[in-house]
Amino acid sequence: MCHVIVTCRSMLWTLLSIVVAFAELIAFMSADWLIGKAKPVSTEDMDNRTGGPQEPYRPTLGIYGRCTRIPHMQLSRRDTLCGPYAENFSEIASGFWQATAIFLAVGILILCAVAFVSVFTMCVQSIMKKSIFNVCGLLQGIAGLFLILGLILYPAGWGCQKAISYCGHYASAYKLGDCSLGWAFYTAIGGTILTFICAVFSAQAEIATSSDKVQEEIEEGKNLICLL
């Protein structure tokens, strides 16, 4: 018989697992990993609202995507074009970034799978006599290791020709040159830290759902158990 067990710790772990998976996915897909050096503003690039020149624009570069401004675009107010610069995996600018994409993709796939499974832990707490919380926590720890490897390798690709075109000739491996780090990189780091927190917290979720109070309510015949 299925017992729906909801505790404060198990619910918090589920929510964190979902947030971490989405945060890493959004960061991976974003082009805001590197913020390039400011492009010089032409006197012809006028701001229609103020009549003066537009503010200097800083293009952004991601692992496989980029955002750049299209000059003299009259058909639309939006003059920033974002999209992948690489049409296939082999066109990613650096071998290090290709490795980063692989490690991050594997880590994110694991996190998404755990986030999906975590929703059902309210009803199913074990499978083949193994705690789902412990299994998911182990998988989150493995995903965190893949994410760390990806984040360590990513700065090694700053010396590729694509990064140099955005960051200037002083850019090299682990040296930003004229670039700065974008929000996507910091989001990926924050998500990695939270991944390990989730992995540790999964043990607390397992303890909460197998506590004496829960067992007492199961013995009383309750199918819906909520301990907050």
Describe this entry's structure for a reader.
This protein has helices at 8-29, 95-119, 132-153, 161-167, 183-209, 212-219; strands spanning 4-7, 34-35, 60-61, 65-69, 80-84, 126-127, 130-131, 180-181, 224-227. It is of the alpha+beta class. The chain has a single domain (4-35, 93-226), classed as Butyryl-CoA Dehydrogenase, subunit A, domain 3 (Up-down Bundle), CATH 1.20.140.150. It has a five-stranded antiparallel beta sheet with strand order 5-4-3-2-8. It has a two-stranded parallel ribbon with strand order 1-9. The chain has a two-stranded antiparallel sheet with strand order 6-7. Strand 6 (126-127) and strand 7 (130-131) form a beta hairpin. Helix 1 (8-29) packs antiparallel against helix 5 and helix 3 (132-153) packs antiparallel against helix 5. The radius of gyration is 23 Å and the shape is elongated. It is found in: Membrane.
Which properties best describe this structure?
single chain, 228 residues, alpha+beta, Butyryl-CoA Dehydrogenase, subunit A, domain 3, five-stranded antiparallel beta sheet, two-stranded parallel sheet, 12% strand, elongated, LHPL2 protein, fertilization, transmembrane, membrane, transmembrane helix
The termini sit apart by 23 Å
CATH hierarchy, class = Mainly Alpha
Evaluate the radius of gyration. 23 Å
The major pleated sheet works out as: 5 strands, antiparallel
The structure class reads: alpha+beta
Helix-strand pattern: EHEEEEHEEHHEHHE
Q: What percent of the residues sit in helical stretches (DSSP H or I)?
A: 40-55%
Reported CATH architecture: Up-down Bundle
CATH topology: Butyryl-CoA Dehydrogenase, subunit A, domain 3
Strand content: 5-15%
Estimate the mean pLDDT confidence: 83
Whole-number tally of structural domains: 1
Widest sheet, order of strands = 5-4-3-2-8
Principal-axis shape: elongated
Annotation field: number of helices:
6
Indicate the low-confidence ranges by residue numbers.
73-77
Number of strands: 9
